[in-house]
Each structure stands twice: as structure tokens, then as C-alpha cells.
Amino acid sequence: MRLELRGITKRFGTFTANDSIDLVVEPGQIHCLLGENGAGKSTLMNSLFGLYRPDEGQILVDGQEVHFRDPGDAMDAGIGMVHQHFMLVPVFTVAENVMLGHEHTKGAFLDIEAARAQVLELSHKYNLEVDPDALIEDLPVGVQQRVEIIKALVKDAQVLILDEPTAVLTPQETDELLEIIRGLKATGRSVVMISHKLREIKAVADIITVIRRGKVVGTALPTASETELAAAMVGRAVSLRVEKGAAQPRDVVLSVRGLTVRSATGQAVVDHVDLDVHGGEVVCVAGVQGNGQTELTQAIMGLEEFVTGSVTVKGQELVGRSTREVLDSGIGFVPEDRSHDGLVGPFSIAENMILDQYRQEPFAKGVRMKPSVIAANAEEKVAEFDVRTTGVQLSAGSLSGGNQQKVVLARELSKPVVSLFIACQPTRGVDVGAIEFIHRRVIAERDAGVAVLIVSTELDEVAALADRVVVMYRGKIVGIVPPDTPRGVLGLMMAGVPLEAALHSDAAHVGEDLAEAPLVVPAEAVEGVPVEPGEAAVVPGQPTAEQPLLGDRATTTPTTEEGGR
Amino acid sequence: MSTTELKTEVTAPVPEPRRRRAWVDQVLIYLLSFVLALVISAFLIAFADPDVRSALPYFFSQPMDTISAAWESVSEAYKALFSGSIINFSAYTVTDAIRPFTESLYTATSLILAGLAVALPFRAGLFNIGAQGQLILGAIVAGYIGFSWALPFPVHLLVAILGGMLAGSLWAGIAGLLKARTGAHEVIVTIMLNWIAIYLLQYLLTLDAFQRPGRDDPLSPPVAAEGRLPRILGEDFRLNLGFILALLAAWFIWWLLERSTIGFEFRAVGANPSAARTAGINVRRAVTGVMVVAGAMAGLAGMNQILGGSTEYALGNGIAGDIGFDAITVALLGRSTPLGVVLAGILMGALRAGGSTMQAATGTPIDIVLVVQSLIVLFIAAPPLVRKIFRLRAPKPE
Ligand SMILES: Nc1ncnc2c1ncn2[C@@H]1O[C@H](COP(=O)(O)OP(=O)(O)OP(=O)(O)O)[C@@H](O)[C@H]1O
Ligand SMILES: [Mg+2]
User: Which end of chain B is more exposed for a tag (fewer CB within 10 A), N or C?
Assistant: First the structure.
């Protein structure tokens, strides 16, 4: 099926989100959309999928003009879409979710067997492994996404739209998804994919269309370099690696001792964790999603119920304190899920900018809030963090995904007195230009003496920010390593293999990769970083400018062929 | 001069699409819903009329009989509704002519206050079905202070008002606390508290302390003159200080929600409890707080019922009427904003006041007013239906 968009224009009030966009998706093509946050990518796809009605322009399917009144029409025409935020019913099974909206019936009864069979057939056909009887809420995000893809494919979609499908995936899951996408292409279907991750775009795209401020500014081939792509998208040169000096660690700010967090069922999701974060250093927690990293930060913030052990910030005990007291002790916190925990969607951008500071001067005096001060503050932050919006009184829910994230970051990164900054997946859904800015801000905080704790499943980010990397597996710390530890070693550690074993196993698999293998050195030798007894530490042999760091090394080899995992 | 030039310059490049603004659309939907409700009710009025029914069997031979009888009954009924709620043009004195509107406001007072008691929790994601019980408690305490204590004028009234507020707060606070501490659903708890309040009132009215001397029906003594809400337009009109209090209460709730840190917490908890919690807001305290403030509003409504004279200043089993339940309609109609509640309260008060006149003048049952009310709510709740009927386009999205 050949899909063509001609002169699509979509306005919100006086704001033009899509300005006369032309786009052609050939059969069997993987077409990637690249663009800054708020460029209008999601809006364009929503117009194509019948969720919005474009103000101007035509949609042509195989040369025939079509009008979609709703997504049902689009699906009938052979278009499927997986949204940025999943739309599944958590208490339903996979099969029930898949048939939702076009239920199979046998007389007056639902024919769940037919739906199960269909799920099995599709999952077999496209290598989308899922159990049709599993409940959605029990499935990891990556599998939930497969369910979304199956859902999009049930009506035999010829064009599949994926809006930032990899934002919430682990690197392994991402690789699997890219394989699935290639499989779809092999059957003659086309895929339109939106992503901010240049590496994966380069890995799968046949053609890349770059959108800036609602207009198509050009197309590129996957052979273009990441730097070229980034520059085309942002309109200026972007440095994909933050310039940062060596950390100047100061006193311990955050000290975690024997911290155990239990789930409601009594299972230990964080298991006797000991960790120190010094002022002036960035510690990144790496690990496969769901190994206790999120719960660790939640426990520090007083958001977990069953917590034992001790968490101190500057000597002050935080376990047992309310979240407000924790925040008031000088902590900036970026939660993992912005729309669930970080923002109040119907509230204005201005209100969201002070969501955890609304009681403090100058935003309030006593119980009286100061709307003009709050608005002025928002104007300032919106400009500083380049949040793309037409007004600070608009609801945060109307912002594009990446701009919502910027609001949360702007709020937490510009608190007046902060000794500890904690962020989970800080740049999820954010474009490369904004990532550059945010990473610089985080490093600036570090250099100002703030202790920084980052949880990220994004190894590029870990490599870019971290002074030390903590690897977690099943609630426990597997090891603490320097940021330039080879990906293969990190990957093994993230699977629970201790550092020593990981080093050897990795070496056995990809020997050539480890020509510059890091040496294990005594902990005391690590300059500046006082190491706790029992903590493992390694430093690379000779970090030089020529020696590429992790991210770059990975980009030179295709993602899916990563060794050692 | 220069500013206007600048303005055109800024707006010129983007042609504003010629579609209605969202608020214009809102107002339009409300008006059309009202019209639709009146049209449908007109049929009911016509069919309820004996003349129309007797003309109906020979409708096909003499349709005009039915139509004129129907026109007669409907126009009479709506005329009575109007003259009973807005202005009576056939009155001989100005006082009599404008009395209907003051009666509408008088009737609206308790509806506004109780409406606030439902609207505020809505904003915090809570459904307060318990305005009725909270109102009864407010009436009991305000009434008791009113008829059994002896204090000088402003003090007596003030104490009675405060007593009513506190009683309502306390009653709603129980539901809030249970929700916050145990997660007990506020709908169930407030419904149960309504029943407890109803039976509590029945029981109290059997006690000597509440019984009017020389009577054996459940009726309290009248409230002392010092404890009554003073009339504000002279003795000819029943409209009293209660209405001013209701407006002040609505303004206070607006201020609380939109301008205070407390309201910020309430709204955040209502819109996204997990984000509120992450931002350090104590969700439990907010839940309890919302109910306490809401209860105070319902308590004021109860106070207004007894100290405002709608039951001859005496406490009886019917003190609350259905106000606590109509309050839900008021809150829905008013979209849970204080201004909306005031307007919806006045509309419903007018329908009430006009309805009694209509029943007295034309024999059209006052229940028709309930039908009109319900239909308005129904249509307002379904804007696409109204748009379809009147072939309107949807407004531009904001
Ligand atoms: N319902 C809406 N009302 C007003 N403005 C909107 C609405 N939806 C989107 N916008 C605006 O349109 C612009 C484009 O948004 P869109 O979601 O398409 O961006 P995007 O390219 O998908 O960005 P991201 O990479 O952050 O997801 C944004 O500036 C956004 O604020
Ligand atoms: Mg988007």
C-alpha cells in the first residue's frame, strides 16, 4: 500500500502544529520521522490515523483520496498505530485486549477462542512472542508493546505507525523491536516510526523525513551521520557528548545503608542496598527496567510504604519522613513516569512549574498564592528550557511528550536550594538538542557541588553523565564501575553476573573489542573518590581523547549485533 | 494608536479560523438545552391537561381543538412559571411585581450553599452524596442554638451560624477521615451518614428539649427573633442575609480553589493523586480537609433552612426537603465551579419558585419543574446530542 500525505495542515487555535506537510510512504518502506520536541510529529500521525481532522490537505491511499472520521476508518483502510502512551486495559488478558473494539462473537457470546487463535497466529507470523492468556498488568513494558503491535495488526494493517516505540524499552527490547519491524517490512508492509534515538533510526530506516516547527525541512538517508541528522533536526550543530571535566567529589551527601523495600506482597524489590553519593559527583544506576532502581529512588523520596534501613541526606535521616519533609530537605526529584507522577495534566504549565514548590516564597505568602509571580516564573523557565508552547496558561497535557518532560526537568533543576538531585529516565522522549542542554545542566549542578543520582536504562546517557555507575539486578547492587566500562560487561552485570566473571566472559566473546579493556585496580587508587569498604571499583587503563566512549563505539557497529549479551 | 497597529501586526500572519470560541459554545449549549427542556416539557404539560386529553380522541377530525387546547395550557403554564419566578407584570404594586424574583433568590440560597458542598469535593475527585445529612446536622445545631439559647441580636445569630457550620463540617469530616484512613468509599459512607442524620433528627424531635410546648407532633419551638437571618429588602420580602452569605461562601470557595495553597492541593489531588503525592502533598489530609470545608457549606445550607424562615423558623422532619440531593444537580449544572453553582442555584431556585405559582395558577403539577430540571441536566451532559439537534459545529479545540 502506498500512502501519501499532501499539504497536511493542522492548527490548534492560532498555533500551526503542521504546516502543509507532504509525505510519501512506499510499500515495504521503513520511514522514520525525526524532529524536535513539539515539531508536530505526533500531531501529523494523529491526523493520519483519524484522531484529528486536518484543517487542510489530503490523504491518499494507493492514489485514492480518503477521509478518516475516526481511527476505526483508518484501521479499515489498513493503517495501524501504536501510541506514545499505551492504551491497554490492565485487568484484561492479551486476547481480550486484542479483540476489544472488534469483538468476535458466537451468537450472543464473545468468542475468546477465535481471539486467542488470532493472537497466536499473528505472534507466530511476526515473531511477536506473547501469551494470549496473560494479564496485561503482569507483563513487562516490552511485551505490552508487542500486544499493542498485534492489536494494530489484527485488521491486517499495511502501514504501521509507531510513535516513539522505544522510549520505554530496554536496549534488548529495542533490538527485538527493530527485528520485528524488519520482519514486517519483509512481508511488504510499511512502517512509519517516530524516534529521538538517532542510532536506532539509522539502524532500521530506509528513509528519514526531518520535521522542524511543523514543516518538512528535508529528507535524509540512514547513511547520514548522527551529527548531520541532529543538525538537520535542530537547525544548528549539536554536540552529542557533554563536555565535562573530572568530578571533584566532596563530602557524602546521600548515604543509603541496608535499605530494603518490600512490595505489598512482601517481596524484597530493593534488597539491602548500601550506596553513597558525594556532593559534586554523578552516580548513575544502570539496570534492566524493574530491578529495583525505581523503587530505590521512591524509597528515598518517602513514596514507598514498606521500607527498612537508613537513608540520610547530609546526616539527616529520611526513612519514615513524609515526602514533603524529604523535598524540603533540599532534593530535586524527577520521577520516571512524567504523566503519571510528574505532572498534573489539566493544570496549567505555570502551575506545573511549581507543583512541589507552591507553598514557598515567592510563589505564595501564607496560604495566598501569587498568580502573577507564578506566571512570570513559568515564562522564564519556558524560555530557559526551550519548552515549545504558545502560553504558560495552557494545560500541561496539551504539550508534546518531550516538552512535558522539559517542564518537569525545568521545575526540578531550578529549585533554589538543592543538595541532592535525583532523576529517573531524565531524558525519556526528549530530542537530542534538548538532551544536550539537559545534560549540561546536570553537569553544572554537579560542578556546583550537588550530589546527583540518575537512574537510566539508556547506556548512552549513563556513559555521558556518570562519574560512577551502579549496576542493579534483582534489587541488589551487582557492582560499582566507572562509566567507560565496556557495554558488554555492563550488559552481563545487568543480567546479574558479578564484575569479575563479566569481564572474563565478555573477553571470551568479543576479544577484539576489549583491546583497551579496563584494568581492575585497587579501590584506593581511584582518584578523588573515596570508596566504601566492599565496593568494587575499576578504572580504565588510559582514557584518552582518541579512545571512543561507549556510545560512539556502539554507533559504529549495528545495535543488534552487540556482542556479549 | 501604535498599540493597535502592533496588535494587528502580531495577529495578522495567522488567520483566525472563523469558529466559535469554546466558552461561547458552552453558553450556547446551556441555552439550547434549556429551550429543548422547555419544549419537551411542553408536551408533558399539554398531555397532563384534561382539556387536551378530552380533545385528543377526535384529533384527526378536528385537530385544531387539540392544538389550541394544548397551546392554551402550555402558554398559561409557562406564563405562570415566568411570572412566579421573574417579574409579575399583572401585579398592582411594584413590590408585588418584583417579589417573584426575590423569591427565586430566596429559594436559591440553600441550593447554592448545598451545591457548593457537592461541587468542591468534585474538584478534589470526591463524590459527596452526603450534603443532605450534613445539612440536617447543620439545621439541628443552628436551630437548637436558635430556639433554646438567649443571647443579644448579632451574637445569637453569629453563634447559631457557626454552630451550623461546625456541625456540617463534623458530619462530613467523618466521611473524609474514613476515606483518608481506611479507604472507605465516600459515596457509601455519606449515604449511610444521611440515614443516621435523618433518624437522629426524628429521635431528637421526640425529646423534651426539642419539643414545642403544648404540641405533640414532632416540631420544635420557633427560633428566637435574635437568631433569625434579617431580611435585606424590608419586611415585604423574604429575601434575607442568607443569600448574601451564600454569595460570600461561593466567593470564598472560588478563592480557596483558585488562589490558595489549600485549594491547589485539593485540585491537584483531584486531577492526579499520584503526581500530587510525588510533589509532597499529603493526600489524606487533603481528602479530609475537602470534606470538612464542604460540610461547612452544607451546614450553612441547613442553617439557612431554619434561620431563614422557610419552615416558619421551626425544626421539623421536613427541614431539609430534597435540597441535599438537588445540590448534586446544581453542582453538575454549574460544572463544579463556584460561579456556575451560583447561576445554577438561581436557575433552579427560579424554577422552584415559579413552579409553585404555576401549580397554584394553572393546576399544572409542580413535578413538571423536576422534569424540566432533569432534562436540562441531561442535555447539558450530552453536548453532541444538542449539537446534532441544532446542527451546530463543534467549537475549535483550545
Ligand atoms: N490539543 C492541543 N492543543 C494545543 N496545542 C497542542 C495540542 N496538541 C499538540 N499541541 C501542540 O502542537 C505542537 C506539536 O505537538 P506534537 O505532540 O505533535 O509534537 P511532537 O513532534 O510529537 O513532539 P515530541 O517529540 O515531544 O513528542 C506542540 O507544540 C504542542 O504544544
Ligand atoms: Mg510526540
Answer: N
CATH 3.40.50.300 in chain A is located at 3-234, 245-330+417-517
pLDDT digits (tens, 9 = 90+) for B227-259: 999 999 988 899 999 999 999 999 999 999 999
Q: Tell me: the pLDDT tens digits for B161-185? A: 999 999 999 999 999 999 999 999 9
User: What one-letter code names the amino acid at A332?
Assistant: G
The count of CB pairs under 8 A between chains A and B is: 79
Q: Alpha helix locations (H) across A103-170?
A: 112-125, 141-153
CB within 8 Å: B268 and A55: no
pLDDT attached to residue A155: 80
Test A356 with B277 for CB contact under 8 angstroms.
no
pLDDT band at B298 (very low <50, low <70, confident <90, very high): very high
- Which residues does A361 contact at the CB level (< 8 Å), separation at least 6? none
Q: What is the largest CA-CA distance in chain A?
A: 75
Q: Which residue has the cell 425544626?
A: B315
Query: A12 and chain B: CB distance < 8 Å anywhere?
Result: yes
Name the pTM for this structure.
0.86
B312, B222 Cβ separation under 8 angstroms = yes
pLDDT given for residue B395 in this prediction: 62
Domain A3-234 CATH class label: alpha beta
Report the candidate in A63, A59, A238, A86 with the shortest Cα–Cα distance to residue A162: A86
The reported pLDDT for the residue numbered B300 is 98
Q: Which atom of ligand 1 is the closest one to the Cα of A388?
A: 29
Q: Which residues of A touch B336 (CB under 8 A)?
A: none
The model's pLDDT over A273-304, given as tens digits with 9 standing for 90+, comes to 999 999 999 999 998 878 899 999 999 999 99
- How far away is chain A from the Cα of B280, in angstroms, using its nearest Cα? 4
- Protein residue with its CA nearest to atom 24 in ligand 1: A37
Distance A30 CA to ligand 2 centre (A): 18
Of B119, B110, B113, the closest CA to residue B331 belongs to B119
The CATH number, out of the four listed (1.10.287, 3.30.980, 3.40.228, 1.10.3470), of the domain defined by the range B111-355:
1.10.3470
Q: What is the pLDDT of residues A139-179, one digit of tens each?
A: 877 788 888 888 888 888 899 999 998 887 877 788 888 99
Domain ranges for chain B: 20-85+364-398, 111-355
| Selected residue with higher pLDDT from B113 and A560 | B113
- Rounded to the nearest angstrom, the distance between the alpha carbon of A430 and the centre of ligand 1 is 13
List % helix, strand, coil for chain A (3-state, nearest 5).
35, 25, 40
Q: Grid coordinates 420557633 are at which residue?
A: B222
- Output the residue whose Cα is nearest ligand 1's atom 17: A400
Measuring CA to CA, how many Å separate B256 from each of A260, B26, B175, B176, B252? 41, 25, 21, 18, 6
Q: Say which of B16, B278, B282 has its CB closest to residue A14.
A: B16
CATH number of A245-330+417-517: 3.40.50.300
Interchain pair B280, A347: CB under 8 A: no
